[in-house]
Design a protein that fits this description.
This protein has 69 residues and is of the alpha+beta class. It is 30% helix and 20% strand. It contains 1 helix and 3 strands; from the N terminus they run βββα. It has one helix at 34-54; strands spanning 7-11, 16-20, 28-31. A 3-stranded antiparallel sheet has the order 1-2-3, with helices on one face. Strand 2 (16-20) and strand 3 (28-31) form a beta hairpin. The longest helix has 21 residues, at 34-54. It is elongated. 13% of the residues are buried.
Length: 69
Amino acid sequence: MNKYKQVIYWSEEEHKFIVEVPELPGCMADGMTEEEALKNTEQIVSEWVETARILGRKVPQPERKVVYM
């Protein structure tokens, strides 16, 4: 599983779940179920990172979150 933040939501227009990866511009996937959308995101993140490296672009590190209790 990748360590990038993922935002998942239902799209009425597409009638699918959409997952966006904010740290990787333009990186998003969809699926008929939440599970399918998240699974598809794993593949898309891998492809995004691979393509960025091939093109010599910077690959952002996953955000680190600090939790205060």
